[in-house]
Amino acid sequence: MRTVSRICSVARTQRRLFSVTSRRLDNYAFIGLGQMGYQMARNLQSKLAPTDTIRLFDINKGAAETLAQELKIQQVSGAAAQVADSAIEASREADTVITCLPEPQHVKSAYQSILEGRLSARSQPRLFIDCSTIDPSSSHEVAAAVSSALPGGQGNFVDAPMSGGVVGATAGTLTFMLGAPDSLVARAELVLLRMGKRVLHCGPQGAGLSAKLANNYLLAIENIATAEAMNLGVRWGLDPKVLANVINVSTGKCWPSEVNNPVPGVVETSPASRDYTGGFGIGLMRKDLRLAILAAKEADAKLTLADKASEVYETAEKEDRCKGRDFSVVYRWLGGKE
């Protein structure tokens, strides 16, 4: 009995020693502080440990400096935030690198800079998480470059485009569509759930982007159809709120009708009720539609409505009254009553 007692005592002591062992310090890099990235970086920083470090970089250095200053003034708890002068400076000591950039060429350029620089040795393989919405082919190209520059599994690249817009980025309620091998899902989720509320593992690297572009292609079509249907009903003399209620309990129900209704006043929280500001920009929708069309051609998938939808967004965006506004502004372009 005394022997068993001594063993138990040693085990308890070992557990106590393990529990007070200092946690590993983590270093993060966040590259790309646009409307989405700015808020995502803020949420990530606030949920990291004070012993961690997050280095911020944007080609507009003022964005990184503003965020770092805001965090300092507001005394936000979380990781120490530092401003970097380049993508490689931000990434050199990072265990996890997150990128959130506008176009494929920006993603390629950032990773070329990072991989050509002198990355310090890390105790665990680096994880690169690209949250940009780009075409799958470009993403595969970057993933191959990472594997080539950091052989032996020392660098892993995954794609994690998101849904939820600026509102979701600010509230930390984004949904991420993750393209990654099974072995990296848990590690990527740990990071992404600090910036959102849901991670959907779509398959291997590139699958997240495929899912995102398929979804946004559907969204682009639904938005135009909703704007046309609402305009049609209003011109027939229907109250737009009554029409929206009918649609939203019937087979026409969709996100553009229920949440992002294009008629001002129907949904008080929609961009349409704020002169089409503060939502998903028409230029971004045009870009995503273009990427979806490109990816569809590579997959030999027929998109019968793509060309006309692309024409609608391109034409609408050229008008001053629509440019830079939420993509539901298509209703205004159609001549809808406001």
TrEMBL record:
<dbReference type="GO" id="GO:0050661">
    <property type="term" value="F:NADP binding"/>
</dbReference>
<dbReference type="InterPro" id="IPR011548">
    <property type="entry name" value="HIBADH"/>
</dbReference>
<comment type="pathway">
    <text>Amino-acid degradation; L-valine degradation.</text>
</comment>
<comment type="similarity">
    <text>Belongs to the HIBADH-related family. 3-hydroxyisobutyrate dehydrogenase subfamily.</text>
</comment>
<dbReference type="InterPro" id="IPR008927">
    <property type="entry name" value="6-PGluconate_DH-like_C_sf"/>
</dbReference>
<keyword id="KW-0101">Branched-chain amino acid catabolism</keyword>
<dbReference type="InterPro" id="IPR013328">
    <property type="entry name" value="6PGD_dom2"/>
</dbReference>
<dbReference type="InterPro" id="IPR029154">
    <property type="entry name" value="HIBADH-like_NADP-bd"/>
</dbReference>
<dbReference type="InterPro" id="IPR002204">
    <property type="entry name" value="3-OH-isobutyrate_DH-rel_CS"/>
</dbReference>
<dbReference type="InterPro" id="IPR006115">
    <property type="entry name" value="6PGDH_NADP-bd"/>
</dbReference>
<protein>
    <recommendedName>
        <fullName>3-hydroxyisobutyrate dehydrogenase</fullName>
        <ecNumber>1.1.1.31</ecNumber>
    </recommendedName>
</protein>
<feature type="domain" description="6-phosphogluconate dehydrogenase NADP-binding">
    <location>
        <begin position="28"/>
        <end position="203"/>
    </location>
</feature>
<keyword id="KW-0560">Oxidoreductase</keyword>
<dbReference type="Pfam" id="PF03446">
    <property type="entry name" value="NAD_binding_2"/>
</dbReference>
<dbReference type="Pfam" id="PF14833">
    <property type="entry name" value="NAD_binding_11"/>
</dbReference>
<dbReference type="GO" id="GO:0008442">
    <property type="term" value="F:3-hydroxyisobutyrate dehydrogenase activity"/>
</dbReference>
<dbReference type="GO" id="GO:0051287">
    <property type="term" value="F:NAD binding"/>
</dbReference>
<dbReference type="GO" id="GO:0006574">
    <property type="term" value="P:L-valine catabolic process"/>
</dbReference>
<dbReference type="GO" id="GO:0005739">
    <property type="term" value="C:mitochondrion"/>
</dbReference>
<feature type="domain" description="3-hydroxyisobutyrate dehydrogenase-like NAD-binding">
    <location>
        <begin position="206"/>
        <end position="334"/>
    </location>
</feature>
<feature type="active site">
    <location>
        <position position="212"/>
    </location>
</feature>
<dbReference type="InterPro" id="IPR015815">
    <property type="entry name" value="HIBADH-related"/>
</dbReference>
<keyword id="KW-0520">NAD</keyword>
<dbReference type="InterPro" id="IPR036291">
    <property type="entry name" value="NAD(P)-bd_dom_sf"/>
</dbReference>
